[in-house]
Write a structure and sequence with these properties.
With 262 residues, this protein is an alpha/beta fold. The chain has a single domain, classed as Metallo-dependent phosphatases (Purple Acid Phosphatase, chain A, domain 2, 4-Layer Sandwich), CATH 3.60.21. The protein is 27% helix and 23% strand.
Length: 262
């Protein structure tokens, strides 16, 4: 079986000036690199508007038309016209399969995200049980991925006003309620947990009692960074650490270690 690649994209915020061009550059780089599949973990749009969703469809057309993209919604996608219902209709936990991949898509948004002032996510016990059931059905020799928008560990805010509201005790920027419970439930059942929401990329690894480890990766804002992580895998196993793939030109907001990988 050949080595396959999975790219992690998030927080494109189509509708923000310059985001469509930046997103198209990311797509062009992914196509040129021959990436096999792309996971997009939410906040595709800035205000959940249909015209912003159409910008994404234009910018990512080569990959969408090839069936090489899987998405979950973010809180911004819930606003205004609620394109989250287009991105992931009906059930809050769904399975998508692609060559070598078994992906559990989790909608961590909720009705309170209709307001951009209430950005925090939500998962209840029913959602978590559905995730576990989905993971238990994963086939052997597939890389198993859980994808959702909201972060499961405490992370700093991206802007001063986010730090301020956290200091005031409001939950807008908090980690996903139940995120740690979710991690405990999926330990040993999957290889990657991919998310977005925070715009600075981070990674963390979880393991318990020698069980199958989980890599928890925050993509950051791919349109702002101009870079995405790419995972290599074969027969259900990751091949080394992920590598950064940079669009051209490298965005000025990219951290130095990302820009140097270009």
């Amino acid at each position: 079986m050949r080595t396959l690649t999975l790219a992690h994209v998030s927080d494109l915020h189509l509708g923000v000036p310059g985001a469509e061009r930046a997103t198209a550059s990311v797509c062009e780089s992914l196509v040129e690199a021959g990436v096999d599949h792309v996971m997009v973990t939410g906040d595709v749009t800035q205000r959940g508007r249909t015209r912003e969703w159409e910008q994404f469809q234009r910018a990512f057309a080569p990959l969408l038309e090839a069936g090489r993209v899987t998405l979950v919604p973010g809180n911004h996608d819930r606003a205004d016209e609620d394109v989250a219902s287009i991105i992931m209709p009906d059930q809050r936990v769904q399975v998508a399969e692609h060559e070598g991949l078994f992906m559990v898509r989790v909608d961590s948004t909720a009705p309170h995200n209709r307001s951009l002032l209430t950005a925090h996510g939500h998962l209840d016990e029913q959602d978590m049980a559905a995730v576990v059931r989905a993971l238990d059905a994963a086939p052997p020799r597939a890389l198993v991925v859980v994808a959702l928008h909201h972060h499961v560990h405490p992370l700093p805010g991206d802007f001063f006003h986010e730090d301020l509201v956290s200091w005031l005790g409001w939950p807008w920027c908090d980690e996903l309620s139940g995120g740690q419970r979710l991690l405990r439930r999926i330990l040993g059942r999957c290889d990657l947990l991919l998310h977005g929401h925070r715009h600075v990329p981070r990674e963390r690894h979880e393991v318990a009692n020698g069980s199958r480890p989980i890599g928890v990766y925050n993509a950051g804002s791919s349109s702002k960074l101009g870079c995405v992580r790419v995972f290599r895998h074969a027969r259900g196993l990751l091949e080394g650490a992920p590598q950064w793939l940079a669009a051209r030109p490298v965005a000025p907001h990219a951290p130095q270690e990302i820009a140097s990988a270009a």
